[in-house]
Protein 1
Amino acid sequence: MTATPATEQAVLDALSASHREWPYSDNHDTVNDPWPLAWDAAAFIEEWFAHSEHNDLEEAICYLPLNPWKFGYDITTWHDKKEPQALLRAHLLRIVKGWSGETNLIEYLEDEPELVESLGFEDGCASKSTLWRVWNDSRLELDHKRVIWTIGQVLVNVARENDVPAPEEVFHPDPSVDDPGDVEQDDSTVRDRTIANTREVWEHAKPMLTENYSLSRGDNAEVHENAFWESHAYMGSRAEMYAEDGTRNFAAETTRDRVQTGSTHRHHIQKINPEEARQMHRDTTEALIERARRDSELVGGVLASIDITKSNPYRENTELEFDEDGLANTWLLGYKEKGKDEDDLPDLHFQWASIQIVGLDVPLVLDAIPVSRGLSRAAIVDELLSKATDMIDIEMVMMDREFAHDPVKDVCEDRGVYYLNPGMMHTSERATCTRLRRQGKLVHIEQEEDSSSDNTPARTTLTDFTEESTETGVEAGQDAPARKSVYVPAMKAKRTADDSDDEEQESKQEDESQDSNEYREGLLSDFAEATEEDEESAGRMFGDLIEEIREEEEERRLPGNDEDTRLYLLFETNHPDLQPPDDSESLSEVEKAHMVSRIIRKYKYRWGIENGFKQIKRFRVRTMSMKFEYRFFNFLYACTMYNAWRLVDLLVKLELLADSEFRFKPLVTADLFLTIAKDYAGLDPPD
């Protein structure tokens, strides 16, 4: 933050000179007529942003005077520990951000401890229930809430007039409009507003696309270049449409006089090499990011995920070529299914790796690369991060277990990005699970020793079962954040003991399962109590992460106690908010559980990229071509259309105040967007 006591005093001095009546509300009964409070706030905001060093909207909220007594409620009847002015400022922040409920506000503030303190909270942010009561439990009259809404609008408008990033007024909730309540996806209002937003977003997005995408053609070309991009968008928005039929259908509907044939379309598109296609997609996405930032989106560090997706199986074996090393096409990767004849070829796929924004931000695909045979996971991560970090500030990247390798961690640290991924359960880690179970530990953090050190980090072995052990820390290196292994309760893990025909063995397994389940339930209860959540909420904190990870572990036969291993889940990270063990000796189990949950629960957002892959396929032009350049361009262009859809979805949520109800899923479905987009995408009049 850039404000200082000196700049604050300069604003107050300017107020005294320009608004001699300020504070106007001192001479009025604001309990019955609160609008003088809006006048006072507007005058302060105007002078605040007039100062050359004040260029942050959230900072202005932290300094804005909001006297709770003037808003007409008796503090002593309900206020307990939280500062009343801080509570009002927190709700003002919620309004400015466009959030209709307290959930998004709480999750945002949990990651912004400095902002929490600046708002006026002395010992941490208020709970969700406290914030809810302030706004919904007759603590404020309707007129006073409208004044706060109005102050939020003034903040946004004055900030934008002074070139400070803030939401656009057209998308800011109107305080005179009542909350529409539950919003249904098939509501006619949703469709009407989706159409309006689609028109506007495509009006801005199409020039971004046509200015950044280009073809290498002769100067005497008769078909306008934009016809290629329009027809590709047209074909991608229709199910099972290939280039040959797609260009004919496009010609029948467009107002253009000349349109390329299907073969000409494929010929020119497949001449675009992967590097050129990536640059075009990145340039377009950067323009979309800039557009989103005008609504105060994507302005801070974001969470990102890296993963690999594959095409539909390629089964045209007659066109395959082989050499002494096997399949000559290094872009086709094979997967042998269980039970398949050894002489049969495996299913062959083209693969693409991508990096996508996940979490509560707009889930845009930042970049993608084609995956060839022999390309390492570290090389994939390095290439994707090298470009994505130039586009946006990435706080942490999340990956699945196939990326849990030291070279990948090296890449993340070299790129200045924190990482989070499930770890591999080897003998040492499985032994640690048994030790934690015997000690009754909820969570456990182990720090790796600095790689530059000559000492070998101590690791848990099977002999530790019979020895007294305590958590010890290793001093981290100075050049990079310390790497840590984090053990958390696997609360929703299922027992998967092998079946047995022996009744006695089955009975024994049932007894062991019951004991294990009772212990797991005890861990769940303890963790819920430690984090002040109900058991169901605490289970969701980590439990949603378990199923996919556990399936991979059950396929690997390793020494150690299987029951104890299923009680815990291992994560690896270098995030600095997880304190090293030697620095956390003074922390209680409750404090450790809180500290760990704030970081590890972010991993649930990684599945956003999996859902993204499923949706991107719906925007992709179909093909049977063996040209990986053409296939890769299809994938990237579909990612561009996917990005446009997610931006439309965000704007509709903000307008309908539905970002809380549809926080983890789109309000505007892909089907609805495609139905509308195909009427407006690619059918504009000739350039």
Protein 2
Amino acid sequence: MSIPRITSRAACGVITTAAVSALLVALPAATSSAAPTLPDNCPTALPTDQAVDGVSGTGYTVEKGTKADAFTAKVLGRVTDGIAPGIDMIMADLDSPALERAGGVWAGMSGSPVYTADGKLIGSVSYGLVTPSNIAGITPAEDLLALRNDPSNARRAATQANPKIAVPGPVAERIAKTGEATKATADKGFQRLAVPISASGLATKNTKHFLEGITKDSGTAVRAGAGKAKSGVKSSPSEITAGSNYAAAFSYGDVSLFALGTTTYVCDDTAVAFGHPFLSVGPSDYSAHPAEAVYVQPDPVWGPFKVGNPGGPVGTVTWDGTSGIRSTLGQAPEHEYPVTTSLVNDQGKTVTGSTTGVYQPWAADVAALHLQAAVVKALGVQSQGSSQVKITVKGTRANGKKFKITHDDYFSDSYDISYATADSLYFLLAPLVSQPYEEVDITGVKITGKVSTAVKQYRVSSVQTKEKGKWIPLKDVTDVAPNSSIPVRATLSGYRNSDTVTVPLTVSVPEGTSGYTGTLTVSDGRSVYNEYKEPNSLDELLTQLNETPSGNQLVSQVDLDSPEGTKVTSKRDAEVNGAIAYYSTQVAVTVK
């Protein structure tokens, strides 16, 4: 996908020239002098050692909409090596009507630029006290501007930052003198301003399993229902400016997962935001979006936070490290992949959906969340039901060779069919994403099929074997001959109805097994015992995934061991037109 590039940026790194002219007229003064004139291009950094107690500045951030409003900032001093070894944290007392309404610095302000009266960048508001207040921690401009170049070679471009920043006693006393926080509060130190992952388009329940990995990786909660990044929305890189809303997305479309913060500066086609790491992965591949702020929600306990709606993708986040996230505007993420669904419901209506996944390590989570929501959308309710789906996963291996996984399956659940269906997709993709053999890219996930609120399920009501011409309940098999067969059949009963199905499962006894002993197992396809073999290559893993058993299979399997320990297996499987409830029974087998 190509993104229109900026052909002219008269105010690169800040609000466009016309907007700046209009904005500066209305901005309150940061000190007795006029508000700073924002730089026409990349800002000049105030040397960190000049950020001393008493320096005043003006910052910019968005409370509502897309227009950046001003706030005042008064530097209180620095914490040496506060953010990371070699990176100080500048402390400041902020003020504005928006901050008073919110009850302090809010989640979503991360990256808000602060300038001196002569237009030098002091840094970005990126940290706050543990208890909400107007006291903020600022990432120094020198470290932010180091991200303009290749961040892996930038000065102090580590990926890890201190999760908590302690303050010495005299510093806590200085903070307390502002009246914005008590010394006891200041003694607890600073922490990164939260950048919770906002999620939209999710099912209303049973999403926890699919969000656990995301929560663990990000170290932050996932906030459902907070804005949506839609597919097909057109946005321009020129919407990303200093002080503007900035969203880093991991998926967008029907299911959106994104982190909302603030842009610190833009230089040519490079934008820097947040002023602290997000996932701390170093080289990254998220999509960058402008956003519209809906409101800032006050919360005196956990801290205020911003809610917003991202626009279309306008660039790629290429670095996620200590001093912030860096993106290239006009460049689409290299590893995006579509997740699409086409499901026919009880009324015969085909309901389609589409999500664009961006962050490959979360492909299983994103695909499962999309499918779960798609089933709910097709049924019009999150409830019991049945599904019959065909899953196709496409990807590219490290050598450029393409691969494909296809899987047909049936599901039924008396509580939540959307979860049961999505869970299968998750466990199909998760081993592929986490495997250690080689780098792979998921290039597409497609699900088609039928869904219903009716529970179309069978249970195994009896299993029989034949003895002297008569069918009897299954029992231990003794003195069976090699190269013969064990007659088996299963009777299935419908869920809460009188339907019955008889399934032939006669299974052979392997040749050359005289004196062997073992077991005969009759089971649904997912429960049948197979000795797990750890794959030794991606090829072996792909074979295993393509052979994943389906929910409509019934299996009879003979597992035999020789006196010397040799193992042999014989298997018979059958399929029915519907899901089979979990079932397994086992008897002993002796070969004469």
Protein 3
Amino acid sequence: MNKTCRYTSIAIALTLLFGCSADNEQARLVQQQEAMEAQRKAQELTKQRQADEAYQQRHQTEQVLKTQRESTLAEMGTVLQLSSPSLSRVQTMAIMPIPSQPLFENHDNYLDTPSNGVHQTITTPLSTFSIDVDTGSYANVRSLLNSGQRPPADAVREEAFINYFPYDYHEPENRQQPFAVHTEIAPSPWNVERQLLRIALKGYEIPADQRQASNLVFLIDVSGSMHDRSKLPLLVNSLTMLTKQLNENDSVSIVTYAGNAGVVLPATRGDETATILNALQSLQTGGGTNGEGGILAAYQQAQQHFIDGGVNRVILATDGDFNVGMADIDDLITLIEEKRQHGISLTTLGFGRGNYNDGLMEQLANKGNGNHAYIDSLHEAQKVLVRQMSGTLQSIANDVKIQVEFNPVTVKEYRLIGYQNRQLRDEDFNNDHVDAGEIGVGHTVTALYELTLAGDRGQIDALRYQHGHASETSVPTPHANEVAQIKVRYKLPDEKHSQLISKQVELSDLHTRFEQASTDFQFATAAAAFAQKLKTERYVNALTFQEIADIARKNRGEDPFNYRGEFVQLVELAQNL
């Protein structure tokens, strides 16, 4: 009996033990399943939220594109009202609706151009660079912003933003000096410890009837990548505008390249407008991109019809996709430099999205003594090829270099805003064999330096072993009030030896408030701030997009073509992307 009870008790205990274990295991499994279910629901919510955000982004982009297309069509209609009735084919092409652009992976290519750093004057008093009037970066970034995309940092070149806009600088007193040099200095709007120094050049203007005869070769990419309406059709309409500005003293050749290169139109007098337009309108896309063969054929045409004392220029119009032909870009650059030395320059016009090679286009133009522009609309084509035609084609000063020597007694630190890929060694300034940029008829060139004056808080710690050296021995007392000496070297066309201009900036020139500076100074500052904010926040993080827009709006001044008004809209658009 007792034994039976003992066995029964053991059985009951074991049952309770295993039962509790089973219950615990079951509870653990239930908790695990509940946790997995909660995780699955969270993942689904995350995916749904991401899908909703993607939809909103696509919807926003489509709305921006729709607005841009409607604006472009209206703009085309306005321009084409001025066209000859005989150009029915061009009119038909221009007014065709632009289809919706699907979202695609962007393969645009840009050079690595990080913002310039800060230099201490006591160790690096000289800053030397080549001038640059290329505006392609601004137009390209504008195209990206208008399509709802924030531009990659390397797409932003600060100097192109500043120089995109015309400024009311005074011309030189006579043509013996091809440009005038202006300076202005005022506090920075983004940091109370900083000042801004503006250096500005203004080339002389010439009447249209005094423009030099031009031997132009249109080198046109008709490869398969140029099929999009923002490429070849816009290209044809753009060169149509330029063609209408030419006269009997000019000459036009048309060379195309795809898988093979060919001469579509041999040299034709500029006043034979219909012949040139018919050749342009006959162009069709297809094949690879044999850029090498096209450039060789174009330079051959330019050499055969060379105009002594005139403009001899190849105008390369492409999306920059060189994928067939010359494999080594250095060989291409060597060819362009060689032709430049023989008086044939190269201008590059960029078109389209998706595989646009901005880095290559700017580099080729720099080496070819030309300029680079990005054409994203007929409005931009009018600006570059009609309103600024003389400046685009005709140079009045070559190899223009700027060297600034800062006074360590008055300037603690400095930073050049932009011109990263136009930096020169200090010894290159006096070397007439070193290539630099050109100034065209009527061109303005603006450069901005951010300065930290002595007594203000700098961005670099004071040097232990250089303290007192500059103020005691380096700077003679008569120059103690100077901020900087600015030297500009240039060559007149067809001359091999440079000439020198020198100018000093005094502390007494400093405005006490930013608002006291000229309208042009304040607007250029807004353009520089916008570019820096798109590229990197670290130098202008105290200034908001809205504050930049407000500065630009207050200093719009005379704006007959709405360049500055459009800038304000871009800044306000960027803050929402």
